[in-house]
Q: What sequence folds into this?
């Protein structure tokens, strides 16, 4: 493997690869022994070191395994064939994406890849002013976030570039959300977070943008709140609903387990919403969980939340 990597490429430890891909160290070692991939280099003390090519292929393999493919059938395949197999999985998460003829996503991605951060920030700010927050979220940020995710997943963007994009967009969206007038005291209250193992927070922020435009009180806990803490937070902040975001990279089992646990521990009067690109949300129904198929649907659900009997009942006192 060392000969195939660029001379100045940063090589990653097995622990770093485990964190990035979600594949355990034991799995990586078993595949190395059984299938001959990955084939890491070794440092001076014999520790495994993995290159970007390994990382890209491992990300694709993880997505295929989550979709039901067996390791013995896919681990030995070349990357181009793996990408072909994963193409339908990527397309499945794009079904609700609207066309936006006025937005040149390729140009925005080029600014990111060329590290023209100031130009990208200015262009996003102009698009926000031109389109308004709702259309900006749906027609710019949603498709671009997916395009950035695909580019990272396929190894065309580095991790620092994906992180830079996330920070930039968070700043733009948070500023826009803060400019929306505050709702009245009787407005529906929504708590937003992700579960442990889901570090991607832009989906939450996009949902928050759509909710505040519907006049909801929103409280975001950020990402990876421990499951045991979510019911306490919902009670403390008198939430009418808890909204969770799941990316396509989170395993189906982890998504389902988290939702089942939370539904069993949240107060019955608190609705549990789940959205994002995780395909399992469209394949499996969970009793007591509202799967929101697209950002456009948030408005309808927010309207229903405000008129639901549970939302109208007095909340228990806090403190």
A:
């Amino acid at each position: 493997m060392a000969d195939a990597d660029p001379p100045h490429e940063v090589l990653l430890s097995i622990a770093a690869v485990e964190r990035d891909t979600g594949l355990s160290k034991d799995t990586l070692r078993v595949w190395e022994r059984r299938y001959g991939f990955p084939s890491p280099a070794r440092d001076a003390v014999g520790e495994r070191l993995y290159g970007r090519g390994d990382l890209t292929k491992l990300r694709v393999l993880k997505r295929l395994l989550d979709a039901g493919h067996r390791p013995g059938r896919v681990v030995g395949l070349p990357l181009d064939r793996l990408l072909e197999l994963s193409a339908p999985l990527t397309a499945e998460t794009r079904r609700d994406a609207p066309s936006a003829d006025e937005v040149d996503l390729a140009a925005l991605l080029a600014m990111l890849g060329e590290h023209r951060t100031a130009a990208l920030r200015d262009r996003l700010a102009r698009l926000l002013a031109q389109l308004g927050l709702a259309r900006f979220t749906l027609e710019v940020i949603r498709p671009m976030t997916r395009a950035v995710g695909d580019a990272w997943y396929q190894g065309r963007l580095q991790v620092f570039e994906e992180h830079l994009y996330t920070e930039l967009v968070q700043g733009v969206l948070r500023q826009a959300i803060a400019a929306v007038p505050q709702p009245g005291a009787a407005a529906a209250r929504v708590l937003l977070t992700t579960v442990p193992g889901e570090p991607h927070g832009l989906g939450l922020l996009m949902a928050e943008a759509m909710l505040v435009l519907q006049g909801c009180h929103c409280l975001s806990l950020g990402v990876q709140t421990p499951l045991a803490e979510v019911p306490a937070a919902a009670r403390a902040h008198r939430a009418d609903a808890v909204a969770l975001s799941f990316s396509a990279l989170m395993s189906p089992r982890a998504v389902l387990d988290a939702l089942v646990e939370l539904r069993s521990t949240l107060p019955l009067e608190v609705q549990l919403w789940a959205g994002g690109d995780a395909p399992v949300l469209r394949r499996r129904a969970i009793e007591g969980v509202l799967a929101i198929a697209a950002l456009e649907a948030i408005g309808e659900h927010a309207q229903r939340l405000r008129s639901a009997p549970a939302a109208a009942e007095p909340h228990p006192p806090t403190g």
About this structure: DSSP finds 14 helices and eight strands in the chain.
